[in-house]
Every structure is written in C-alpha cells, then in structure tokens.
Amino acid sequence: MLSDLGTLPVMSEYVTVAVTGPSAAFFDLDRTLISGSSAFTLATAARAMKMMPTRALLRDGISAATFKLRGDHDTGKSDGARDRILGFVTGQRQDDLLALNERVLPVLLGRIRPEARKLVDMHRHAGRATYIVSAAPQEIVEPLAISLGMTAGLGTRGEVVDGMYTGRLDGPFCYGQGKVDAITELARFERLDLAQCYAYSDSASDLPMLSAVGHPVAVNPDSKLERHARIHGWPIVIFSQRTKTVIRRTMAGVASAGLAAGTFAAGIELGTRRSRRGLFR
Fold first, then answer.
1. Which is the catalytic residue, given 30, 60, 72, 202?
2. CA 173 to chain centre
3. Does 130 map to a domain?
4. Average pLDDT over the chain, rounded to an integer
5. Residue 239 falls within a domain, yes or no?
6. Catalytic residue among 28, 60, 181, 202
7. Residue 5 within a domain
8. What is the pLDDT of residue 255?
9. Domain range for residue 236?
10. Quick check: 42 and 140 in contact, CB under 8 A?
C-alpha cells in the first residue's frame, strides 16, 4: 500500500513510468525488494552445507543486517563488512557458493514483496532494464534477478583463480559509494542516462545510489532516509510488511509449480553462467 505523507509527491500506482530515453531501474535487495535480510538466508544455507561453523555464520549474518540497518557510511565499518563477506568465501570453491542457490533462491523468492514485484513488472513493461544492486555475492544476486525476470544483478564479486576465491575483490564492494561505481560502470557499458534512471531503497546507506539517479524513491525508509526524502521532495512508498508465500509453497511440490519451478531453474542456470564470467566480460 501507499501512504500519503503530506506534501511529499504521491506515486500513482507506485511510479509514473516514462518511456523516453535509455533508462533503467535499480532495486536494493534487503527490505526493499524482499522482506528481511538475505544474509540470514545465506548463513542458514551455508551452515547446512557445512561451509562455515554455525556461530560464525550467525555472527556475520547479524553483523550484516545491523550494518545496513544503521546505514553506516564510516569507512572502517564498511571495510569491516567487506572483509567479512570476502572472509566467508576465501578458500571456498565458486561451485560450492553457486550450489547454495538451490537452498537460497526458493526462500528469497518467497520473500519478494508483492508491491516490489509489481514495480519491477511496470518498469519491464515500459521497456526499461531492471537490476538488483546489493552487497550480497554476485553468485546469489544474479540468479535471483534472472528468476524474477529482471535484466541482471549487480552484487559483490570476489576474485576467482582456478575455481577458488582468493579473498580479493573483482570489482567494487557493492555498498554505499560502491553501488554508484557499479551502476556508473553499467551505464557506460549499456549507454544508460542515469538522469533518466530510477532507484529504490529503504536505507540511508543507499543515499549515494539514490542521489546518482534522476528518479530516487524511498521504500519503507529508515528515519535518516525519510528525513532526506522529505527535504528533497523524493517520493516515499510504504510496502506492506506481509509477503505472498505462494512461491514458497509451490516450490515444495504443489502440482501447479511448473511455471515457478521452470523460472527458478532457468534463473539458476543462466545466473550461474553469468556469475562465472562476470557481467561486463
């Protein structure tokens, strides 16, 4: 649902879609496109696959969630978050991380906000490319985007040598200013005009990305982002905290799962191929 917040611009049916010019729509993942945090889902799946001890996974999952909730811009804290993500994959096989999608994607798909899905579809039907932009690993973000019928995902890419993660980045850390770096690189590659692009986020940590596009939108914003949106006249939308669980149930084996399962499988297959070679390669 939408809320009427006084003098703030009201978005008719969530967004006024313009079709002129080379533009795209960028969606933050946690608490914007999905309800909750993808870090907990990834941690649970990795624990089940014995990729890291339970205590370390829970610690990193909680740290990742609270890091975003605080909207930290402090360089030391963001470096710490980057190091935790890289530390998680260092020495792991890329194939093992990709294999987590069989557990991770069904859960994340079940957490997609209905209003967010509608926004993605509206942009797509307007001929606009749609992207997830997240600090989560590219190997998770890309298959999720493909499963949703989106153009691609922009996540944090770890360097891979001989099929193993080295612990170094292979591109920007996709958080804060790193998201701007990622969408700017994409804009050059795809000849997009960022002034005609849209971006959606719930967190003040994404102020750099929101400020980099011509059409920023605050979604269920934290207090800092809401204040900024009010001052600058940005649209604010309030999505329901509830999500549809149809996909989660159908993935468990209901007879009508054919279409959903086909999309899910296609997302894993295509997303896996793209994640291995990188988006711009």
1. 30
2. 13
3. yes
4. 77
5. yes
6. 28
7. no
8. 32
9. 12-277
10. yes
Residue 3 lies in a domain: no
In this structure, what token pair is assigned to residue 78? 């963001």
Contacts 24+ apart (CB under 8 A), 3-12: 3/236, 3/237, 3/238, 5/230, 5/236, 8/229, 8/230, 8/233, 8/234, 8/235, 8/236, 9/233, 9/234, 9/235, 10/235, 11/217, 11/235, 11/237
Q: How confident is the model at residue 21 (pLDDT cuts 50, 70, 90)?
A: low
- Residue entry with tokens 């963001």: 78
Give the total number of structural domains in the chain. Answer: 1
- CA distance linking residue 158 with residue 164, whole number of Å: 10
pTM, 2 dp: 0.76
H, E, C per residue of the chain:
CCCCCCCCCCCHHHCCCCCCCCCEEEECCECCCECCCHHHHHHHHHHHCCCCCHHHHHHHHHHHHHHHHHCCCCHHHHHHHHHHHHHHHCCCEHHHHHHCHHHHHHHHHHCECHHHHHHHHHHHHCCCEEEEEEEEEHHHHHHHHHHCCCCEEEEECEEEECCEEEEEECCCCCCCHHHHHHHHHHHHHHCCCHHHCEEEECCHHHHHHHHHCCEEEEECCCHHHHHHHHHHCCCEECCCCCCCCHHHHHHCCCHHHHHHHHHHHHHHHHHHHHHHHCCCC
Q: Residue 30 catalytic?
A: yes
Contact status, residue 238 vs residue 225, Cβ threshold 8 Å: no
**CATH at 259:** 3.40.50.1000
For the beta sheet containing 198-201, the strands, ordered from the edge strand earlier in sequence to the opposite edge, are 152-156, 129-137, 24-27, 198-201, 215-219, 236-237
Model confidence pLDDT, tens digit, residues 129-179: 999 999 999 999 999 999 999 999 999 999 999 999 998 999 889 999 999
pLDDT in tens, 198-229: 999 999 999 999 999 999 999 999 999 999 99
